[in-house]
Design goal:
plastid, single chain, Nucleotidyltransferase, domain 5, 2 helices
């Protein structure tokens, strides 16, 4: 069966409106994952659906500069700028990891104007974790 020929003015081949639906989220959760090599900032709604995210790598930092506090500050600012436009006013902050960008990202979040209900450290801590390998015999 032959395909129907679309006219240039038909509605089928044009996109109506914005493809991304903008949700109004007054409250959310900001996750900061700070490793020694990179800092990733993810903003979700209360149910955990991602609204916006940014990392030091996507902000243009490469190599050892990704782990710096300035890169973390820039990444946090980029992630939060999008959600402030969508109307977020309150947020919880969950920080994970030992990296240098922890404090700088938190400072950038505080400066953005979002009211923080609490800041929680969710870094995983082993309760005497895995069994270490046997000592090497000489």
């Amino acid at each position: 069966m032959a395909k129907p020929i679309l006219r240039l003015g038909s509605r089928k081949n044009t996109r109506s409106g914005s493809r991304k639906n903008v949700r109004r989220t007054p409250k959310g959760v900001i996750h900061v994952q700070a490793s020694f090599n990179n800092t990733i900032v993810t903003v979700t709604d209360v149910r955990g659906r991602v609204i916006s995210w940014s990392s030091a790598g996507t902000c243009g930092f490469r190599g050892t500069r990704r782990g710096t506090p300035f890169a973390a500050q820039t990444a946090a600012g980029n992630a939060i700028r999008a959600v402030v436009d969508q109307g977020m006013q309150r947020a919880e902050v969950r920080i994970k990891g030992p990296g240098l960008g922890r404090d700088a990202a938190l400072r950038a979040i505080r400066r953005s104007g979002i009211l923080l209900s609490f800041v929680r450290d969710v870094t995983p801590m082993p309760h005497n974790g895995c069994r270490p390998p046997k000592k090497r015999r000489v």
